[in-house]
Amino acid sequence: MSHTSQQSATLHPSACDRASEDPDRERAKFLVAQLEYHNYRYHALDNPEISDEAYDALFRELVNLEARRPDLRSPDSPTMRVGGKLLDGLEKKTHSIRMYGLDNVFSEQEWYDFVARMRRAWSDQTNDALPQAFWCDPKLDGLALEIIYVHGVLQEALTRGDGEIGEVVTEAVRTIRTVPLRLQGDDPFPVRLEVRGEVVMFRKDFAALNARQEALGQKRFANARNAAAGTLRHLDLSKTETRPLRFLAYSLGEVQWGDAAPCRHHSELMARLANYGFLTPPEGKLCLTPECVQQYAQWVRAHRESLPVDIDGVVAKQDNLAVQEALGYTARAPRFAVAFKFPPAQVQTQLLDIEVQVGRTGALTPVAVLSPVAVGGVVVSRATLHNEDEIHARDLRVGDTVIIQRAGDVIPEVVGPVLTKRPAGASMFVFPSACPACGQPVCREQGEVVWRCENVTCPAIRLRSITHFVSKAGLDVQGLGQKWVAQLVKKGLVQSPADLFTLTVEELLNFDRMGETLARKFVEALSVVRTTAPLHRLIAALGIRHVGEQLARGLAKRFRDLDALKNASQETLLGIPDIGSEVACSIRNFFDNPANCVLLERFKDVGLWPQESLDGAKQGNASVLQSGPLAGKTILFTGTISIPRTKAQQWAEAAGATPLSGVSKNLDYLVAGVKAGSKLEKARALGIAVLNEAEFRTLLAQSGIQMD
User: Is 139 a catalytic residue?
Assistant: First the structure.
């Protein structure tokens, strides 16, 4: 910690401290309060009051005092910020209130359309005019986080995750110097306060971190957001402590005010958070009219590069908290807030080459090799060009100076060439007629834009197929990622996914950085998957074109095992919901391939053969019913219910239902919770049966499902 002193201060306990019956306890409280105060002055306000030496002396005194009297170490002690522990893993936990995303607007007209929708929604509930004021602040490009305080003391911290379930990162968050371990100010504090915001790295801190990485001969981080997210989720807290993370607060989750005065407006809430000791997004402002919001967005866009942190737009929230609560949420976003997204930043660089990569389905994808250039805080050296037609449509040639942007401020994209800078003699790119990985001829079917390699033994296809097989989209084998798969394939130990299940600890010990403990974990993880994987996961892992996890679930409900699916005719497949002629043809092509049939036999040999018996006894270890009110039905959940949506879906699947992702004529039941939105309206228009949570639980009980 570097406390560059503006003035030196000598701190002494008060007369009250000296008079205490337990002077050690009072001294510890005093030291905690002083250290957190000076920590806030330095890290949050960048305005220290004491020297490094004075701060360190106070800190050492507290460390020594707590070592002598462990009973004095409080949860909010500054000594709790020190990292060094290794965590076994990250626990997952359900948020008290779902963390929603935001809808986007991209133009002035879209913003006013959003305000008009808000007014209509408000007029449906009241005859009063919609309050015009909005709280606005820059939209941060970081990792969303929720920090939970009980009676003013930090208790727990969760990442956003999927909005309903996040990862517990409490110990890592304690190392962030801008996070108060105890709320500042005087009691009463809320009984429970869930503070939501973003973990970020300021630009200057990110530049310094990358400079340090280079000096140590280590890999640079691609961008500040990824560096912040990776650091927060790091299991080695000594790494977390040394990286310059900051938490900027901007809203609340659940709050139990107790004796504390509740906030009535979002602008008041932001002032309260600052008083509690939190940093808030820079240049936040109360805008009194929608027109003022538009002007604010223009100002922030013009000053975007001068802000200390990466942003990708402006967030506008209705300032009145009672109005926020009344307007509520759609299925994915609040009705009272919106993100005003900025156009992506554009830069120029040189197109050095065009390489062609081979994907797991054999698709050949051209990739632009670029002279490295920073775009919106990210150094870009490669970008997909999608397909041959896109290259010709944009008239891209090797040697061109090209315009690069990050689509949605995320994915690098080549916009087009700067024709005035085109070098003499630059020629059109000719797509290869042979696969760059195996040399076999490639083909492009009529009506398609993609060239494909159809050689099932192609090494590139094999590598990517096996990587997909063990990924989260496939069997989700813990710890076995792309780098290890590449090494296994390169060494010749794995030629097909089935080979993974014959690996031994002794074989794995031949790899660099593979100790016996890690080798045993790999083998055990594969053994667990082999015996417990449900049929739908194995179907998804096969990588059949157009068959994702949702469709794989539907197929697993319909067919007993992979043999039954392999023998299904195209007509049978066409009779399954959500399967059209293209998908049915793709499934048949997969199982008609002799090499894939050999793979299925290998799965049987190694014991990877989940089955769903006709009475619904088993799918891996998961029991699935074939009779009952939900068996064979499709179901969708919308709005807020009292249980996590993932749990509700698991119960529905156990009762024999298939969860869908959207409302269509194929949907049998829509379970609508509180604040259900457009999906409810669409379901009613289509005449689909709508259930409330109690009715859904009744159907589960009739199916014999035990709800925990």
Answer: yes
For the record, the structure tokens of 573 come out as 């497949």
| CA gap 679, 670 in Å, rounded | 8
Answer whether 206's CB lies under 8 Å from 214's CB: no
Identify which of 285-299, 350-364, 467-481, 625-639 has the greatest average pLDDT: 285-299
Task: Name the strand (E) or helix (H) holding 381.
Answer: strand 378-384
pLDDT band at 148 (very low <50, low <70, confident <90, very high): very high
**Number of Cβ within a 10 Å radius of residue 109:** 9
Angle, CA of 58, 59 and 64, to the nearest 5°: 100
Whether the model clears a pTM of 0.70, i.e. scores above it, the answer is no
Burial class (CB in 10 A: 0-12, 13-18, 19+), 219: exposed
Q: How far apart are the first and last CA of the chain?
A: 48
Q: Rounded to 5 degrees, what angle do the CA atoms 154, 156, 162 make?
A: 140
| CA 562 – CA 546 distance, rounded (Å) | 17
The CA distance from 377 to 397, in Å, is 26
* β pairing state of 401-407 and 411-417: antiparallel
**Residues in the chain, how many?**
708
Are the C-beta atoms of residues 145 and 252 closer than 8 Å to each other?
A: no
Q: Domains in the chain, start-ordered, CATH in brackets?
A: 15-81 (1.10.287.610), 112-130+140-280 (3.30.470.30), 346-423 (2.40.50.140), 459-532 (1.10.150.20), 535-606 (1.10.150.20), 634-702 (3.40.50.10190)
**φ, ψ of residue 105 in degrees (nearest 5):** -125, 150
Widest Cα–Cα separation across the chain: 90
Residue with tokens 């490295």: 372
Buried b (16+ CB within 10 A) or exposed e, 561-585: bbeebbebeeeebeebeebeeebbe
61-84 as b/e, with b when 16 or more CB fall inside 10 Å? Answer: ebbebbeeeeebbbebbbbbbebe
CB 148 within 8 A of CB 156: yes
637 with 676: CB under 8 angstroms? no
Amino acid, res. 9: A
Outline where 355-455 has alpha helix (H).
388-393
Catalytic residue among 29, 139, 204, 490: 139
